[in-house]
## 1
Amino acid sequence: MAGDPFNSADPLIGRKLDGRYEVLERLGAGGAGVVYRGRQIHLGRFVAIKVLHQHTASSTEWRRRFQREAIALSVLAHPNVVPVTDFGVDDGVPFLVMELLEGQTLAALIKEGPLPLWRALEIARQTLRVLAFSHIKGVVHHDLKPNNVFLQELPDQADHVRLLDFGMAKFVGAPAELTRAGVRIGTPAYMSPEQLKGAPTDETTDVYAAGLMLFELLAGRRPFVAESPEGYLAAHLTAPVPSLAQVRPRRAHAPLFQAVVAQAMAKKPAERFKDAYEMAVALEDVVARLPAAVVSVVRAEARRKPTPRPRSAAPSRSRFWPRVMLLVTVAVGIAAAVEYRRHERAKQAKTTEVPAAQPPKPSLPSPEPEPPTPPPVKVQAPMDPEPPERPAQPDHDAKAAVGARDPWRAPVPRPLRPIRDRIKRGAHLSQRALVPVYEFARKNPDDPRPWLLLGAAYAQVDWFKDSVERYLRAYQIDSTCRGDPKMLADLLKAAAHPVAGPSAARAIRDIYGVEAIPALEQALEHHRGDREATARLTRLRESLPH
Ligand SMILES: Nc1ncnc2c1ncn2[C@@H]1O[C@H](COP(=O)(O)OP(=O)(O)O)[C@@H](O)[C@H]1O
Ligand SMILES: [Mg+2]
């Protein structure tokens, strides 16, 4: 690492700790210490080693805190907590050994730009789940912020959350010591009113920080932005929670989460969710009310309940029964949903004739693998050719309908231009030709246009399921892009298709509702004579409000 200013001046690089670990390079640093990539010499494996900053290592207070972090991490064996494998002292310097994670912090990801809703929700849900587990185990984190949420990249999954940095953690009931003079008590931007005032803290303190983080995930910026610690102090103590609708007017569904954010960020701890579990349940409630087109891109896991309280942990009496009731309700809901889907699947297997031989695949090679981020949308293909009657679109959708626009009216970004031209000419595109589109999508997560192009490209080669997924992704990024000139026509082609039909029908219902009727009538006309396609489109027609 010679010449690297981040590493070259660090005397720990190259040092052997306790004869067992070799320190290789710096990975990151926070208020308490530095985290290094290291090697466990006898096993030859790479690890992460956290070492306290020199100035903190000499303080008994910090050393106690560091040891407590190691203990908290070992108590919290959970898939969303980084496993700690060792703790030692070398020449008076304590060190903590953890599994080495590949990925980046949430803070780094947010800096790249606002996240699509489904991705923001996925990260929020995983964070709340691990925080709920931590609370169940009696550990309050006290320093929740995007810098301490690590997004691990796994070969089969992006955005696996690992909650880091339990250096500020407190075991519930342990004597308060976080506000002693001279000890860092947190990061002003993410501190709760009670931390700022030096008042007692508990699980609701993490809930407050989780509210700040949820806002930032949904809005792409922090709720309070100040220039100085005093500015943050004033904001946390007195400023009202900003409106998501005002901060992100284009994101039709984000404001549905306003109530969750507002309750989590209540100035008075007693008015917040009691702990991360309650907040997680409230978040799931809102997710469950989202239109299916949006929900379907939230991963399958979204339906899973947060980690239940293990039997060994003694729940406080006041919270035990409400939790049991909640768990039972969630479990019954999940069982019902599973049963419903099984039933519908069986029904579909009977009623849908999947052609014996799929039409030969066109020149386009498999859409996989895509560039690693964003990960492929997992659309849970809806299995309901005859779905239960849906009420008219809720208010927020009606508003979105008014705001439909043709996103191609604005100047087309240069990397998308050649592909757009080729699609316009009706030319088929190879997967290689689509790589720049995925690349553009990754760099511009707030722009629906690359996904619209992909939707059109896949529709052109009759890959309708892939096409529907891409169109849904575009709609989910910006609901007004439904004014795209090809989207409805392609979704209707997909709706007539035996395999993509159900998911396309649902997408059309959610995205266009009654507005789809004139085009749908034309599609019915077009498919006259094709009994199967007509039946599918008629079912869609009947499921739309009259
Ligand atoms: N296990 C790990 N694997 C890879 N990087 C890590 C790991 N733990 C921490 N880091 C990196 O080091 C940074 C600081 O770690 P953290 O535990 O938050 O220290 P601090 O208490 O000093 O804030 C993190 O933001 C992250 O980038
Ligand atoms: Mg940290």
## 2
Amino acid sequence: MRSQDLDAPLAMHLAQFTRKGRCHNFHAVPWPSVLDAAPCELAQHYRTLLGADLSRIDASWSGSAVDSFFTPHGPLADAQRKTADAFGADATFFGTSGTTTSNQIALESLRYRGADVLMDCTAHQSLLFAAEAMNVVPTPCAGTIENPCVDIEETANLLAQRVSEGRPFDILVLAATGYDGRKLRLDDALPRLVASSPTTALVIDEAWSALHAFIPSLAGSTALAVASRLSLRAPVLVTHSAHKTMAALRQGSYLHVLGSSSDIEKVRLARYRIHTTSPSWPILASLDLARVHAEQFGAGEFTRAVTLRAKLEAALRENPRTADMLASPRQDPYYDMDPLVLRLYVGPRSRAIKDWLLGEHHVLVTIAGDHLVVRLHFGVTDNDLDALINGLSLLASGSGPSALGPRATSPQGFEPAIGSHSCEYIIPYPPGVPLAWPGELWTDRHATALAQERTRGAEIYYLAAGGGTRRTASSDSMALGTVLHPGAEDKPT
Ligand SMILES: Cc1ncc(COP(=O)(O)O)c(C=O)c1O
């Protein structure tokens, strides 16, 4: 049977798509493309284990066959130990269902009935959903509705106020690195926050910056490095989507613990509760390889990628039409941009432009609002860069997409009345960061931001707190669940 005769639509679509050859990927590390840069020996290990031998290692190996996934004593225990050492953690757990699940495990390990959680107002949905059975208060927010960030000073004040009232927060969740390239300056923020409430446990989502631990200029300001310099009286749990910035298979994730043996044991048991009982051994092997790869080549590849970023910026600046795309970074004392990310302003057609770049130029970028987000990571080559620059130049000379792009197919009729409180999470996806939380006052700024997301063709999800996807009329009485809107927590004086 010829492959085109197969009645397997997804498989056939992917076969067709990949026939176009290498995709110029500026979103997350595509592990095969790092092989071009890695020296023969390591590349050979990757090729053998994740290519030719994949069918042999993708099996149900738990227990005595290779190692126990949940209580390892053999090679998996060794691999996790070496990874913890490399990142500066007391323990590291490998995960094979993404940081979505690692975040859930982290919060599960700290959970108890009635726990109070101060949640980063920009947190990824996985953290919000995982915290739902606890009392969640969003951190004070700065920035704009479209571009929010944590108000660190106000958050520190709120933490201190709760300590002085004898009811400190049990957990503080921070979203330290985002899909849009934003990066919380943990070396400045964390000492301030920990000093305000030293008994509060920390969950820090560093989904987009696992690689930074291997870069000399960045290693000292990662969550684990900063936290290990502080005198903490509570555990610190850090999550990394290894697959986003390191040479790991999709869904490969690290969950690191800085804490006592009892804290580590709680994470182990939470992982037992939540993680799939059928872990992927190819993903586990790739997490081990990715650590070796980053140790050997992280620093060198980072320098190379920074040079490519500068080259891209210079090429765009040369042409007055593309120079306009170079966005000036937001000024905030507690936030930086990831040094490997360039954000390009392209206006409300961002999604259509993203689709056009992929369809016409085989270039993959992601978007954040009216910007394209370009990540220069491991494996990006001069050839990839040329393809991107060519696409952007054609765009600037007027040959981009004609329309705004496809409208999303998700239900779109409902939205709260201005001046009412949202009954639900309202989440544009991607990226999965809510535009509004349950209980949040719905303003004309929210309405405008939602309209813009719809125009761009984003999928919009309406989710009641505590689960369910009930569609609520805005006149319904508000079902707050356990989530409080910012105004529900007394402002610190
Ligand atoms: C900040 C943040 N945290 C967590 C996740 C979930 O990571 P994963 O895709 O590995 O499940 C994402 C996904 O993009 C993210 O942007």
